[in-house]
């Protein structure tokens, strides 16, 4: 049933930063994601294997790992798409501390999201009407273009600047900030721009586009960051940042 | 060393831009020294320039021209990316910049020999 | 003089924008001028006493010094993990060096 | 105490369990109501990245659009719930949803979809008389939870991520709740958190069925914990099945995940293995009938044996034009494609899948339970939906009552002191959690598969007394075996298999509560269908079930529904009795 009879040879990272790859054999199936392979190994071969997932449909961004060297969401990556000669190498995401095996500590990722002031700060309250905003306005479209981020940190893992300059806020936080800078309801845009104009700010990006290439939601953090750079450039000329 | 997450054209564009920038930055002081040698009289300057008749030096010069062109065109792509509205196809643009640089470099070599 | 990283970014991009046309002309000139081989006389006959070329090369030197220094700064910060005073020393040192050698070169070919 | 070395103590004013819509809203509102209080958020996964609120696709029901009214939303909820909802809770839901959606949009920063004229867009959801479901594309949950998560991250909330609540610990005299025992999943350290007020917002989640939709971190822990300290649960037989779960075979976590409702709404066909359309045999509305009707028809069809390779049925969209499907259901088509299926042009295997538990803890309209200090909101709370939940009322429920709970807890905590826990119970609960560590390793996986089968076969879409009794007996065997089964890996650090074991234990306990409630309800209402009692029963004398645990056994009582606002046959909407007529504005 579903099994094509073959076997996968899977190397999985075990341990913390000083861990190593351990080889397992797992059955190959017709319908099988990388997350399924990891689950199979945990259930049948290595009960101590640590990894993270929640929604299993690409909405929560918990299951990202490095698969054959590339960062990916594993719950929506079919094995057939990534296996090379029935071989898989599965490691934790780059650029984040490892908790254990395939699970990373995402705290710093969210701290940067916070430090970039990646949150809405509006004027209206729950007692006011909802603002009328036509869907075709350029500002609204700019928001829509970047809003569907699932904070999976795939982009963060794909970016070499994050690796080289660990303070750099990174593509996901900056992408979120750009959606807020286009949000006509928001009232803290000057403060937020200052938050992304500092030492760790948007201008650290060198448009490597690893973020955009690997983002599973097909978002374009590169474009968002370019928008922020432009805004920071103008603000700096005016002496505001 | 070149890890799989970098296997995409725009990472290479970044790497080449960085390497060309570095090479230019290293070359530029030398270039200024050569020009500065004119202070010591035309003859000295000529003596230094004579080096450029060697084939190998010609090739190196062509390399420099290539790098300068590449860095210039790549830099223009980046400036456009940052300061103009977004456009897709950055990889294509980067490839165009690379090819154009090669054309310029060969034009230089052709004219030089 | 302590520039913020945003200001450094602005300077780098502005200097790049200045350099772009200058390098373009320079490149054109190289490809054209190399045809008959390089000679001191030829170069100097073009440049000596010319205000236009003096301006051209001065602008080039200033922009390139700023631009390359900030570029080297990024490289040192990211690929060599340099930070703080060392990084500043590199930036301003590189700018100064290029500026000095550049000024000398301009003087040599123009005066 | 025996486990002293493994246990750490923490104090907080307010402890929130779970970071779905309910938990995050509670954290925000608690802080807004009284910024001086210490708020702690403990969650089994990562903040905002676990739970089902995140997975909401359809949207959020709210009477905010011109032509709609709170009364109409309320009537839809009551009629949809087959007159079983607690009407005060349902009213509070519909009324407060208006303010909550405005808050989400104006203060939290959600950016819901608009119509061309710039006003809020409401989409149609089956079973409702008005197109009132506010949404952000088909990823509404991501928008709601991400925005909430950002706000919570920016506030002084103590975060305990990957902390699993193990037990609610009352005071020694049982008069009030003292705190919660948790385990830090990353280190294996046990933590007892004393709190003046605790919110249970762990989100239920019927993951004990062979096919299920909720996120993997949900295993009914909250309800199992409540049962263990003797709190009654209502409406536990009410498990909602979604008709179109993806069927991709065993050993893949894709199986059971939802293919969105809109596929049927847009005109998709359900086919048996011989490619015959069957829905019209069951209901004149065909595939567009409500979730419970379609799920039952599919189940009946599957029992006839004309099933697909993996034992399900097909959904077909291609007759609508593959390109049109690809455009209209981009997200769904892409998700299927990632997993190797061609939704737009081919046939995809589907099966009814357990989606939501209407049952839960009893609480008042301020979310207080009968145990002072314990509050409940979201899917853990019972009574709002009665026998069926309207699509779009789930996220409304968790965000509305989560916010109310935050305020109520802040007021409560300001007046209260910390209480001393029953130390012996803490001790016993640690021992309970460590139970599998000194048992010989066994096949946990086979036990899980058995549980999924028992619930699907005997306590599933269609039920009989005989099947339910068989199910209860099988559950008892299973529990006995689980207690004999231990773990191969003895390290407590991020030991998922240990947590699988704990999940299984919660699931088995709550499964029994579901089966017993289902056995007690001898009629068919909403999501609960008894083949041996197919009639809905008299509406005026409707009652709901109350399950509680007494010692080691589970007892079920029936309590009459109090029609505090409308009685069966009446309506709050003029000129219409009962169900408001289907109208659509667009
Ligand atoms: C696929 C899908 C689609 C849906 N679509 C819709 C829709 O369109 N409209 C709608 O209204 N409703 C929808 N629902 C229902 C809706 O998601 C839920 O009703 C609602 O989100 C429940 O919110 P909650 O806050 O109670 O729980 P959840 O959001 O599920 O959060 C539960 C939290 O508790 C945590 N937790 C669990 N156990 C423990 C423990 N032991 N200790 C500590 N923390 C714990 C979890 O990790 C999680 O953070 C959908 C559900 C699913 C599964
Ligand atoms: C003599 C000339 C030049 C020298 C020595 C030089 C040197 C450098 C150096 C060392 C860098 C840093 C590389 C990096 O950060 O990866 C750099 C970056 C850059 N250069 Fe140049 N450059 C020159 C000309 C130009 C020109 C003509 C342009 C034109 C348009 C340009 C555009 C850029 C840009 C945009 C960057 C920034 C890249 C980034 O940060 O992502 N440069 N340059
Ligand atoms: S931008 Fe894309 S890759 Fe980055 S966190 Fe968001 S969804 Fe993931
Ligand atoms: S990969 Fe990094 S360098 Fe910029 S374009 Fe993306 S943030
Ligand atoms: S498990 Fe949620 S995105 Fe993969």
Provide structural commentary.
The complex is a heterotetramer of chains A (241), B (113), C (111) and D (586). Chain A contains 10 helices and 7 strands. Chain A has 241 residues and is an alpha+beta fold. Chain A has 2 domains: 4-104, Roll (Ubiquitin-like (UB roll)); 107-237, Fumarate Reductase Iron-sulfur Protein, Chain B, domain 2. In chain A, the strands form 2 sheets. Chain A has a 5-stranded mixed β-sheet. The longest helix of chain A has 17 residues, at 221-237. Chain A is elongated. The longest helix of chain C is centred in the N-terminal third of the chain and has 29 residues, at 5-33. Chain C is 84% helix and 0% strand. Chain D is an alpha+beta fold and 586 residues long. Chain D has 14 helices and 18 strands. Chain D has helices at 21-33, 70-80, 87-108, 140-153, 221-228, 262-265, 291-303, 322-328, 330-338, 393-415, 423-434, 444-458, 465-484, 496-520; strands spanning 7-17, 39-42, 60-61, 122-123, 133-134, 157-160, 163-170, 177-184, 190-200, 233-234, 239-246, 269-271, 313-316, 347-357, 360-361, 374-376, 543-550, 553-560. In chain D, strand 8 (177-184) and strand 9 (190-200) form a beta hairpin. In chain D, helix 3 packs across helix 10 (393-415), helix 5 (221-228) crosses helix 14 (496-520) and helix 13 packs antiparallel against helix 14 (496-520). The longest helix of chain D has 25 residues, at 496-520. Chain D is globular, with a radius of gyration of 23 Å. Chain D starts with 6 loop residues before the first strand and ends in a 26-residue tail after the last strand. The relative contact order of chain D is 0.17. Chains in contact: A-B, A-C, A-D, B-C. Chains A and D meet through helix 1, helix 3 and helix 4 of A and helix 3 and helix 4 of D. The complex binds flavin-adenine dinucleotide, protoporphyrin IX containing FE, iron/sulfur cluster (SF4), FE3-S4 cluster and FE2/S2 (inorganic) cluster.
Number of helices of chain B: 4
**Gyration radius of chain A, rounded:** 20 Å
What spatial order of strands do you see in the largest sheet of chain A?
Answer: 2-1-5-3-4
CATH class of chain B: Mainly Alpha
């Amino acid at each position: 049933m579903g099994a094509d009879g073959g076997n996968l040879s899977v190397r999985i990272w075990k341990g913390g930063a000083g861990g190593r790859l351990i080889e397992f054999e797992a059955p190959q199936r017709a319908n099988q994601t990388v997350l399924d392979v990891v689950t199979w190994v945990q259930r049948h071969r290595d009960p101590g294997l640590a990894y993270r997932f929640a929604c299993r449909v690409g909405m929560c961004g918990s299951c990202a790992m490095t698969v054959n060297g590339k960062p990916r969401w594993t719950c929506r990556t079919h094995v057939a798409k990534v296996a090379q000669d029935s071989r898989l190498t599965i490691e934790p995401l780059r650029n984040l501390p490892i908790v254990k095996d395939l699970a990373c500590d995402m705290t710093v990722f969210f701290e940067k999201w916070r430090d970039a002031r990646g949150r809405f700060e509006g004027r209206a309250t729950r007692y006011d009407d909802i603002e009328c905003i036509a869907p075709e306005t350029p500002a609204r479209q700019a928001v829509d273009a970047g809003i569907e981020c699932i904070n999976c940190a795939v982009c963060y893992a794909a970016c070499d600047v994050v690796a080289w300059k660990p303070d750099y806020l990174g593509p996901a936080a900056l992408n979120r900030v750009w959606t807020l800078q286009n949000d006509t309801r928001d009232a803290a845009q000057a403060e937020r721009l200052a938050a992304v104009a500092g030492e760790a700010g948007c201008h650290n990006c060198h448009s490597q586009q690893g973020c955009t290439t690997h983002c599973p939601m097909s978002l374009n953090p590169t474009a968002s960051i370019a928008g922020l750079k432009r805004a920071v450039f103008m603000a700096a000329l005016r002496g505001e940042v | 060393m070149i890890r799989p997450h970098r296997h995409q054209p725009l990472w290479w564009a970044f790497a080449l831009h960085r390497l060309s920038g570095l090479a230019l930055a290293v070359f530029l002081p030398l270039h200024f020294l050569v020009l500065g040698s004119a202070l010591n009289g035309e003859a000295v300057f000529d003596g230094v320039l004579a080096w450029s008749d060697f084939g190998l030096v010609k090739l190196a010069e062509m390399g420099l021209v290539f790098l300068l062109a590449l860095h210039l065109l790549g830099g223009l792509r980046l400036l456009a990316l940052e300061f103009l509205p977004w456009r897709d196809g950055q990889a294509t643009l980067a490839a165009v910049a690379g090819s154009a640089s090669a054309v310029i470099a060969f034009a230089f070599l052709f004219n030089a020999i | 003089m302590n520039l913020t990283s945003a200001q450094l970014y602005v300077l780098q991009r502005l200097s790049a924008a200045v350099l772009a046309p200058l390098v373009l002309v320079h490149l054109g000139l190289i490809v054209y001028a190399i045809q008959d081989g390089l000679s001191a006389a030829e170069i100097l006959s073009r440049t000596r006493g010319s205000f236009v070329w003096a301006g051209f090369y001065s602008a080039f030197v200033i922009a390139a010094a700023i631009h390359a220094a900030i570029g080297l700064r990024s490289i040192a910060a990211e690929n060599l993990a340099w930070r703080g005073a060392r990084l500043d020393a590199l930036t301003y040192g590189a700018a100064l060096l290029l500026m000095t050698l550049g000024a000398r070169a301009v003087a040599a070919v123009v005066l | 105490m025996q486990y002293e070395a493994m246990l750490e103590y923490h104090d907080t004013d307010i402890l929130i369990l779970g970071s779905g819509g309910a938990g995050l809203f509670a954290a925000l509102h608690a802080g807004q109501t009284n910024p001086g209080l210490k708020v702690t958020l403990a969650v089994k996964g990562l903040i905002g990245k676990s739970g089902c609120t995140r997975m909401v696709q359809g949207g959020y029901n709210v009477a905010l659009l011109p032509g709609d009214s709170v009364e109409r939303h309320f009537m839809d909820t009551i009629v949809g719930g087959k007159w079983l909802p607690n009407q005060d809770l349902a009213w509070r839901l519909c009324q407060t949803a208006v303010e909550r959606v405005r808050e989400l949009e104006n203060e939290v920063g959600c950016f819901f979809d608009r119509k061309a004229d710039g006003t809020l867009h409401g989409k149609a959801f089956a079973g409702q008389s008005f197109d009132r479901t506010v949404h952000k594309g088909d990823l509404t949950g991501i928008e709601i939870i991400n925005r909430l998560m950002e706000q919570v991250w920016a506030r002084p909330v103590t975060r305990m991520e990957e902390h699993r609540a193990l037990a609610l610990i009352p005071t020694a005299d049982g008069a009030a709740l003292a705190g919660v025992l948790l385990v830090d999943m990353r280190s294996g350290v046990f933590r007892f958190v004393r709190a003046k007020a605790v919110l249970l917002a762990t989100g239920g989640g019927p993951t004990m069925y062979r096919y299920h939709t909720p996120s993997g971190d949900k295993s009914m822990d909250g309800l199992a914990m409540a049962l263990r300290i003797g709190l009654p649960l209502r409406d536990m037989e009410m498990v909602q099945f979604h008709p179109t779960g993806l069927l991709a075979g065993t050993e893949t976590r894709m199986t059971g995940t939802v293919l969105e409702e809109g596929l049927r709404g847009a005109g998709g066909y359900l086919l048996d293995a011989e490619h015959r359309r069957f829905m019209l045999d069951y209901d004149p509305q065909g595939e567009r009938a409500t979730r419970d009707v379609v799920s039952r028809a599919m189940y009946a069809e599957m029992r006839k044996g004309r099933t697909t390779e993996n034992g399900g049925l097909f959904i077909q969209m291609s007759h609508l034009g593959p390109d049109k499907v690809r455009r209209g259901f981009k997200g769904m088509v892409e998700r299927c494609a990632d997993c190797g299926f061609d939704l737009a042009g081919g046939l995809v295997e589907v099966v009814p899948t357990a989606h939501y538990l209407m049952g839960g803890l009893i609480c008042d309209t301020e979310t207080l339970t009968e145990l002072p200090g314990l509050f409940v909101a979201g899917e853990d709370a019972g009574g709002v939906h009665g026998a069926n939940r309207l699509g779009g009322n789930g996220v409304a429920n968790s965000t509305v009552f989560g916010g109310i709970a935050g305020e109520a807890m802040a007021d409560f905590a300001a007046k209260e002191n910390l209480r001393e826990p029953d130390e012996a119970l803490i001790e016993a609960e640690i021992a309970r959690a460590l139970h599998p560590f000194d048992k010989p390793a066994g096949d946990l996986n086979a036990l899980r598969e058995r549980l999924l089968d028992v619930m699907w076969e005997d306590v599933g879409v269609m039920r009989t007394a005989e099947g339910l009794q068989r199910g209860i007996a099988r559950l008892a065997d299973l529990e006995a075996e689980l207690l004999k089964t231990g773990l191969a890996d003895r390290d407590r650090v991020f030991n998922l298999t240990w947590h699988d074991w704990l999940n299984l234990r919660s699931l088995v306990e709550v499964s029994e509560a579901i089966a017993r409630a289902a056995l007690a309800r001898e009629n068919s209402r909403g999501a609960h269908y008894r083949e041996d009692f197919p009639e809905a029963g008299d509406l005026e004398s409707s009652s709901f079930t109350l399950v509680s645990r007494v010692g080691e056994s589970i007892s079920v009582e029936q309590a009459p529904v109090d029609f505090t606002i409308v009685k069966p046959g009446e309506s709050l909407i003029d000129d219409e009795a009962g169900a408001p007529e289907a109208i659509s504005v667009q």
